[in-house]
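REVIEWER CHECKLIST
Item 1: Sequence provided? yes
Item 2: Single chain? yes
Item 3: Sequence as submitted:
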Amino acid sequence: MGLHRPQPSEYGEAYAHYLGAPPEGDLLAVLQAQGADVAALFGALPENQGVYRYAPGKWSLKDLLQHLSDAERIFAYRILRLGRGDATPLPGFEEDDYAASAKADAHDLAALLADFLAAREATLALCRSLPEAAWDFKGTTSGKQITTRCIPYIIHGHAAHHLAVIRERYLPGIEIILPVLEGRHQLVQLGRFRGAEAAHQLPALGHLLVAVQPEEGALPVALGIGLRLHQEGHRGPGPPGQEAPP
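Item 4: Structure as written out by the authors:
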């Protein structure tokens, strides 16, 4: 009983992608820490990078953040329904239709982030309020049988999946301003730090701590917590190593 790692018998194969490697320890503490990770990542981005797409037809970073909020609320609603012993089958949702209707690019990045954090806090409050027996209740979501216990783990796995996509496919194309010696600054593409695996290694832009080896003839660069992002006059990825005014 209680909120612990679900067994494979508690969910269908369709959910294995998010539940195959559930986190250890107190899940609610893990979810709270993940919310802080999202805040650090998106909070470090300048507004004009929110509409960045790594390829035509892909979601923007704002679209992704809006999707995290939408999914969070839908998953939380499922927790409520199953946790109250309601066995009424619950439908799925078409994420691309939601994204098209939300028009996230028209909203401020800070507002979208605040909305996600409010949704995550509401999820945590709901989970803390459920009696232990509620986690064993069973229901049907998207045509698949599942226990209440599985859904908070799905929330974590779903968000973790999208955060990995952001680090692997989005961050390498984003430019930042790095401080260099003598008060100068250098515009650098994030993906140049450690090759193709750089973004995967970064926990979040706001918590980045890595030494950067300069190219021959360039000034040494040291990047640490408190890095500054390029916020003025930036129009997307440009040539790596391009000089920018301080």
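Item 5: Key structural point noted by reviewer: The radius of gyration is 20 Å.
Item 6: Recommendation: ____
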